[in-house]
């Protein structure tokens, strides 16, 4: 029996691709392994979004090349640098860019001599998450063409998955025991914009998914200028859609936002968060920023810091600007020195630590319903996920004590009793 190993890097969208790849190998003829030393075939599902991700992908490829298994390279790095990798990676037995995924099964059959390998199918996945949790991808590609972002060049133009196919997949996940799903795409808010009459849209899709009966539905990657009042109101009124808004804003300087080719200015973005807080008072807010974009100066930094003090995000990530080939900002003048980028990122994160601690203190005394997602062996306390923290390990953690034994995937209520810089602590509320 051929043993297959897969290393999947990068975002949750890439993870879904990897889960589909694992399902290409029927259990009667193949077995899956996490030990590369015993694998006959290793697939590295790469990320090629920014420089650090590219380096991690290359390092992983070389690490896997040390083993005797056949080595297959797929994913964003393979798509973005296919020609270069063909000539520079003799260690790889096969390199398949995203554009050729429809032929992946045939390429793997030829490489292995095994005819039983199945084609990629979005309705056929081997979940790499916990059995009670899954990501649900609703579209592919992006039409925003932000000047710093290579995604449209890697994943192509935006296109929505068929509505009925998404609902069928969601029902399959529910039947498998999945209790929480995180809805993902490059641009979640504009689902359906490429359908006739722009219908069904993201609100229609969410209403249909609600009816399936998941305990929790969470939206990730909401583009700020595309968030409608209907979407905010649906989230605010829903018992199963997490009151959680993951909205990357990048910065709060108008001239930088224009250079980034973002579709809203700082004033419009402020109004959006005011609206969300008014219509959904218990909203959890998360964002992502870029430090050191070309042309950024100290005044821009101050504007962004003031914006953070005003909005008070519960969760925030900040990346230093990565100069990526093929993007518009690669050729921008006034590139910022690496040392200054890092200083500005650190300044943002120091402020956010203070804000996050203040926001976390507000959670003390609240009771959240959520999922048991593990146990801290050192403290003996359980780990908890609820509307406050997403399942992608970016937000803070919640630990809680329980007088009775619990299992992963149990739905429980937890009273928050203490807060820290980013994390919370609680006790079972019975």
**Overall geometric form:** globular
Distance between the termini: 49 Å
* Count of strand segments: 18
Q: What order do the strands of the largest sheet run in, or round the barrel if closed? A: 2-1-3-4-5
Strand percentage: 15-25%
Which short descriptors sum up this protein?
single chain, 430 residues, 5-stranded mixed β-barrel, 13 helices, 18 strands
Description:
It is built from 13 helices and 18 strands. It is globular and about 60 Å long. It is α/β, with parallel strands linked by helices and 430 residues long. It has a five-stranded parallel sheet with strand order 2-1-3-4-5, sandwiched between helices. Strands 14-15-16-18-17 form a five-stranded mixed β-barrel. A three-stranded parallel sheet has the order 6-9-10. The termini are far apart.
Task: Detail the topology: elements first, then pairings.
Elements: E1 2-8, H1 12-22, E2 30-32, E3 41-46, H2 51-64, E4 70-75, H3 76-80, H4 82-88, E5 94-95, H5 104-112, E6 133-137, E7 139-140, H6 151-155, E8 159-160, H7 163-175, E9 180-184, H8 202-210, E10 216-219, H9 229-237, E11 244-246, H10 254-259, H11 266-279, E12 284-291, H12 298-311, E13 315-320, H13 338-361, E14 367-375, E15 382-385, E16 398-401, E17 411-419, E18 424-428
Parallel strand pairs: 1-2, 1-3, 3-4, 4-5, 6-9, 9-10, 11-12, 12-13, 16-18
Antiparallel strand pairs: 7-8, 14-15, 14-17, 15-16, 17-18
């Amino acid at each position: 029996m051929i043993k297959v190993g897969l290393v999947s890097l990068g975002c949750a969208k890439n993870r879904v691709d990897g889960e589909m790849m694992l399902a290409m190998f029927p259990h009667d003829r193949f077995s899956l392994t996490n030990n590369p030393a015993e694998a006959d075939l290793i697939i590295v599902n790469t990320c090629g979004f920014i420089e650090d991700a590219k380096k991690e992908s290359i390092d992983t490829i070389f690490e896997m090349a040390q083993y005797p298994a056949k080595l297959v390279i797929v994913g964003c790095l393979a798509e973005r640098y296919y020609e270069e990798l063909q000539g520079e990676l003799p260690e790889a037995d096969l390199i398949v860019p995203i554009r050729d995924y429809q032929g992946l099964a045939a390429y793997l059959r030829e490489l292995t001599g095994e005819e039983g390998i199945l084609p990629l199918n979005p309705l056929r996945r081997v979940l790499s998450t916990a059995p009670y949790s899954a990501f649900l991808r609703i579209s592919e590609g992006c039409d925003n063409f932000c000047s710093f972002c290579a995604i449209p060049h890697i994943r192509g133009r935006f296109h929505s998955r068929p509505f009925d196919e998404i609902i069928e997949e969601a029902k399959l996940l529910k039947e498998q025991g999945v209790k929480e799903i995180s809805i993902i795409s490059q641009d979640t808010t504009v689902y359906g914009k490429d359908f006739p009459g722009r219908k069904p849209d993201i609100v229609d899709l969410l209403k249909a998914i609600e009816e399936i009966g998941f305990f929790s539905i969470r939206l990730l990657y909401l583009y700020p200028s595309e968030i409608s009042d209907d979407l905010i109101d649906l989230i605010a009124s829903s018992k199963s859609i997490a009151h959680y808004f993951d909205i990357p804003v990048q910065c709060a300087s108008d001239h930088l936002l224009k250079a980034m080719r973002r579709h809203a200015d700082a004033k419009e973005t402020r109004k959006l968060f005011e609206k969300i807080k008014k219509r959904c008072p218990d909203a959890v807010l998360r964002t992502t920023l870029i430090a050191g974009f070309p042309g950024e100066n100290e005044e821009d930094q101050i504007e962004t810091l003031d914006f953070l003090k005003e909005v008070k995000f519960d969760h925030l990530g900040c990346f230093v600007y990565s100069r990526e080939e093929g993007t518009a900002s690669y050729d921008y003048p006034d590139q910022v020195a690496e040392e200054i980028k890092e200083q500005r990122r650190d300044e943002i994160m120091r402020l956010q630590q203070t804000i996050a601690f203040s926001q976390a203190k507000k959670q003390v005394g609240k009771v959240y319903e959520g999922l048991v997602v593990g146990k801290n062996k050192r403290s003996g306390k359980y780990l908890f996920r609820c509307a406050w923290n997403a399942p992608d390990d970016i937000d803070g953690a919640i630990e809680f004590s329980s007088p009775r034994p619990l299992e992963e995937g149990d739905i429980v209520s937890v009273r928050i009793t203490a807060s820290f810089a980013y994390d919370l602590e609680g006790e079972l509320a019975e």
